[in-house]
């Protein structure tokens, strides 16, 4: 049986559907019946944001999001408004949030093989000690101090007992309500777990970059779901305010459908713009492995640093790619993930006030830390390590960081010494100590100088006959 397992899948966005073609005509009585149907949330794109807004209002739509980053607006549209806009030559395209239910989105169910593996790992040692060795804290003496790290997620707990030193949360933004400094409380614990992996969980976990300057951006609801418009608005806010808050790194431990090509997907377009603005954007490969071409969006974006989940096998003293971790190639032919990082059985803070799904086998350490697995955690690990890299070498650009991580990653091999496919591990396991020493900032994944609108085609396609 294929399981629908939210605890390991991180966060889920609604499926995105493009609706540019004219809708079918209706009978005379159809408009009355259509007007009773609920309005749909949609992204409307034009040459400028102002033009998109004017055309939506003229068509009777209601503006919900101003998104100049994409020359677009978010809007509530009736069927009649959608038809008018689809016939309007001033509108480039309309992307409708289909708002699929869990039951209607089987593409997010992990495989039985991956689910069985996760169950078999229950009760095994946590892997924070392995992560600690990769941080090389004693060798480097880095804390992330002075580097801004934005985390777009479910928020952060008000009741987090962080201990000393406490994390420096320098800004909060709720993209659902569009309020800066407002409530970003976490009702599911996902964002808190990701954040405390990076900045620590009191005396029980020192964190990766305990003095990083956190910018907490809440974009998800109490069920770990979000409208894609809210996530795009979150990315836009971070991009606009990066200089104001010293933000160098943006982490999104989220997973969305790859229904649209990466260059048409609006969230991917927003993240490409964020990368073009100079941010180091770190995203997860998703949790739909081990099948090929299972990397989810925005992990399928060639501009971004996509992270898969690695696991340390204590019995064999071997590092493997976790079965659930998303694999390449992407539909556009790119090798993804770029790198892998610890992403299984990591322990961090879970507030006692949050609510996890009733079917989830929640597990804790004897010290009360929540033990969970996912590419979400692996993405956060890399974001934290990048913060250390930028503390030591603030002159590095995002392209420099991407290439340093690629050039210094350690390729993984099986116990038989045969290499693991790059479609599973990318360049290999992140090695932050090597990246701190390295000087070669050139690599195939460096797209500096290209327009963010450039469609980058990869060289690898999945053979449907194999």
UniProtKB/TrEMBL annotation:
Leader sequence residues: 1-27
Residue span, Peptidase S8/S53 domain: 144-414
Entry keywords, A to Z: Hydrolase, Protease, Serine protease, Signal
Annotated PROSITE patterns: PROKAR_LIPOPROTEIN, SUBTILASE, SUBTILASE_HIS
Active-site residues, Swiss-Prot/TrEMBL: 153, 190, 376
InterPro entries per record: Peptidase_S8/S53_dom (IPR000209), Peptidase_S8/S53_dom_sf (IPR036852), Peptidase_S8_His-AS (IPR022398), Peptidase_S8_subtilisin-like (IPR050131), Peptidase_S8_subtilisin-rel (IPR015500)
Presence of keyword Signal: yes
Family in the record: Belongs to the peptidase S8 family.
Name of the protein in its database record: Peptidase S8/S53 domain-containing protein
Annotated organism of origin: Candidatus Paraluminiphilus aquimaris
